[in-house]
Amino acid sequence: MSTVIEHSSSMLSSLPQTAMTRSVFSHDLIASYLNTDYQINIHNELICLRINHYSQPLAHLLKATQQPSGAIISAYNPQSKLQNDRNNTRAHQLLQHDLCNLGYAIIESLHKDSVEQWPIEKGFLAIGLNLNDARSIGRRFNQNAIVWINSDAIPRLILLN
Question: pTM for the whole thing?
Answer without folding.
Answer: 0.85
